[in-house]
Design goal:
mainly alpha; two-stranded antiparallel ribbon; 1% strand
Length: 477
């Protein structure tokens, strides 16, 4: 009986210890919550301190779930392009491979083949496009995934305080409408774009190139990021890896387009990458102040293209020069590249450097896209999400001093106002251009994003080298 009694006593003591430990953990958690509310929430530090990004982003994601459910169930769905997408899919499924013959109610298809594949999947998931309610919930899910990725990028690489995420979620009826009330393909292209940015900032260049090319295969506007991406390839990769990543981008496009380029290649290229496409004046957001006769003129489009190229050169001029120098530099192949494992090996020393490089990558991509939007031939309402989530990143990264707080808020508010005026007016389109030009001026004046990446790379190598040498010295000692 002795051993059995001892076992019973041990179990009782263990149970008692477990209950005490559980009670201690509950008490600790309650104290932590009280302390957090007292020190962070009641003092409003939760909206300003960078360490509060996780809690703010998680609360907003939960809120967005309920908000999207309410929008889907309370706000009337508006048919614009969904039925046309479904008709284009039916043409594809019926065996049509001539792109000029794939069309719907609003016209022929003007998107690359990735668009067809994505909406073919949606066609089957929504009972041949008839179950709009289910489609809305699919797009709500895409919105939440995109928002999660954007929050991660802001958390790790942005200078914007956490309250900016609140504005990003709560202030835009138009963005919610684009996702769950219109079901536009821009939303899917942007999701793949942000997946590529997440990969690039994590030094996963091949994965990022695949995601980027997939985004291009859904909608051509993603090419606005291409000048910035090419600069980043040159700055972070040696010549061999630069060529490899460019080849991957091209290979993805070829693989996706095989059914069409092996049958009607000219038709596919002309329709899916139609650089001469003329937009309808009635849908324009940015050029309502021009007459339709001027708006459709080819000369007007050429002027915008020239201005686009000029400002790409002005803002990135030092880096274009570095690109040319590196191209003729025989030692360029000796450029040291870092994998994601390199960053984890010395997290304390490299955390700040990783953040700077991530910010540099994002700013390069966002600026390249923003310049393209400023000089776009026409902006339609669904195009808002091309740059909506990147605007706070650009504004707070280029901010200098406390006075820029209200300026940034005002600019975001004015842009939101313009995109919610339907139909657009002369004054709304003029106002949009004025705000765009103010941001463009700040980008020209701001120089921190135009840092010499060679210096960053050398600094990182020196940090890593110092740590390795110190480690070796310690081992010797």
């Amino acid at each position: 009986m002795g051993p059995i009694r001892n076992k019973s006593i041990n179990r009782h003591n263990q149970s008692s210890n477990n209950s005490q430990s559980f009670g201690h953990n509950i008490k600790y958690f309650i104290n932590y919550i009280q302390d957090f509310i007292t020190k962070k929430v009641l003092t409003f530090k939760i909206f300003h301190e960078h360490e509060c990004y996780p809690i703010v982003s998680n609360i907003l994601l939960l809120f967005e779930i309920f908000l999207n459910v309410i929008i889907i169930n309370r706000v009337r769905y508006t048919e614009i392009d969904w039925s046309t997408y479904m008709q284009q899919v039916e043409c594809f499924l019926n065996g049509t491979r001539d792109y000029s013959l794939i069309s719907g109610d609003t016209g022929p298809i003007v998107y690359p083949a990735g668009h067809l594949y994505v909406y073919t999947l949606l066609y089957w998931l929504t009972d041949q496009g008839q179950n709009i309610y289910r489609a809305q919930y699919i797009f709500a899910s895409l919105y939440l995934i995109t928002l999660f990725i954007v929050f991660q990028l802001y958390r790790h690489y942005s200078q914007a305080p956490p309250f900016v995420l609140i504005f990003m979620c709560l202030t835009s009826y138009r963005v919610h409408s684009i996702y769950v009330l219109r079901l536009f393909n821009d939303t899917i292209a942007i999701l793949f774009l942000y997946l590529s940015l997440l990969s690039f900032t994590g030094q996963k260049w091949i994965r990022g190139s695949i995601f980027y090319s997939l985004a291009v295969s859904i909608k051509m506007n993603i090419l606005l990021f291409a000048p910035g991406l090419f600069l980043l390839y040159n700055e972070y990769l040696n010549k061999w890896n630069l060529i490899k990543n460019l080849a991957i981008c091209a290979f993805v496009q070829i693989i996706i387009a095989i059914p069409f380029i092996t049958t009607y290649p000219i038709s596919y290229i002309k329709c899916s990458f139609n650089l001469g496409r003329i937009f309808l004046h009635k849908w324009t957001v940015n050029y309502r102040f021009l007459s339709e006769s001027i708006f459709i003129q080819k000369q007007f489009h050429i002027i915008l293209l020239i201005l686009h190229l000029i400002f790409l050169i002005i803002i990135f001029r030092k880096r274009w020069m570095n690109l040319i120098e590196n191209f003729f530099n025989k030692n360029n192949n000796e450029k040291v590249e870092h994998s994601n494992d390199d960053w984890h090996e010395y997290p304390d020393k490299n955390k700040q450097m990783k953040q700077k490089i991530g910010q540099h990558i994002l700013m390069t991509m966002f600026i390249s896209n923003f310049i393209g939007i400023v000089f776009a031939r026409s902006l339609h309402y669904q195009f808002y999400i091309w740059y909506y989530h990147s605007l706070p990143f650009i504004l707070w990264t280029t901010s200098i001093g406390a006075n820029y707080f209200m300026t940034n808020i005002c600019m975001l508010g004015l842009i939101e106002l313009v995109w919610n005026i339907y139909p657009s007016t002369v004054w709304s389109s003029i106002l949009l251009h004025l705000v765009h030009l103010v941001i463009l001026y700040r980008l020209i004046r701001y120089r921190n994003y135009n840092i010499d990446i060679t210096t960053i790379t050398r600094a990182t190598i020196n940090i890593a080298g110092t740590i390795i040498n110190n480690d070796n010295d310690n081992k010797i000692k």
